Amino acid sequence: MTYIKWAIIIVFWGLIASVLFYTLPRHDVVRIVSTDVRRVDFGDNSIFWSNAGVGEAEGTASRDVFFISAVRPNGKTRVYRNEDTGWIWPPYFKLNSSNVQAEASDLQSNSADPRWVSVRYYGWRVEIFSIYPNAVSMKAVDSPDYKVVNYFNIIFLAGLAILAYVIHRRFKRFREKRFDPLIEDVTDRFEAASDERAGRTGRFRRWLADWKQT
After folding, report:
1. Among residues 107, 114, 135, which one has the least CA distance to residue 26?
2. Which keywords annotate this record (predicted)?
């Protein structure tokens, strides 16, 4: 039973961590090399793509999606999709994908004269499933060594930890006041019933032994 309990706990917190890791914003410093628009046919990976933009038709199996291709300072490539999130999850309320695409086009550069850009994004890049992170915003920076202190993530995770602690404490107090006394009462009644049955069994056995002796 202990193994099942810990398995449930690990799966639960693993799911929470995965959702947070996918949803919370992160930053890359890259050099943008190209921007384009591709027609995407959505399949089993559709959950990792945003819905149609605000004002566009819903329920289409394919649509045009902005893409931004970039290179990191270490030479590794990075590809972002550029989609509106609208008013749904995740709650970035991004409605300016066309503006972001224009900014990305303006910030393009080559390796001979690089322009470094800090891209704020969420999501994962999983090549086997054609999953791309979504670029939320970007800005030009002076150096490829530019560092971003993600205060939002720090504050959000700290607040989430405090909330989880408060809920845990309240549930523990509620359990101690309501559930534990009830469980103790049921246990005491069960033990009393067991003792009573044991007493009756003992008396019956003594009577049977006396009857055999006679």
Report:
1. 135
2. Membrane, Transmembrane, Transmembrane helix
Residue 211 belongs to a domain: yes
pLDDT of residue 160: 93
What's the token pair of residue 85? Answer: 């999130």
pLDDT digit string (tens) for 114-160? Answer: 999 999 999 999 999 899 999 999 999 999 999 999 999 999 999 99
User: Would you state the structure tokens that stand for residue 180, as one six-digit string?
Assistant: 């534990």
34 and 83 share one domain: yes
Contact (CB, 8 A) for 51 and 88: yes
3-state class of 172 per DSSP?
helix
**pTM attached to this predicted model:** 0.76
| CA 187 from centroid of its chain's CA atoms | 40
Annotate 161-194 with b (16+ C-beta within 10 A) or e (fewer): eeeeeeeeeeeeeeeeeeeeeeeeeeeeeeeeee
**Structural domain includes residue 92:** yes
Q: Which domain holds residue 183?
A: 149-214
CB count in 10 Å sphere of residue 53: 16
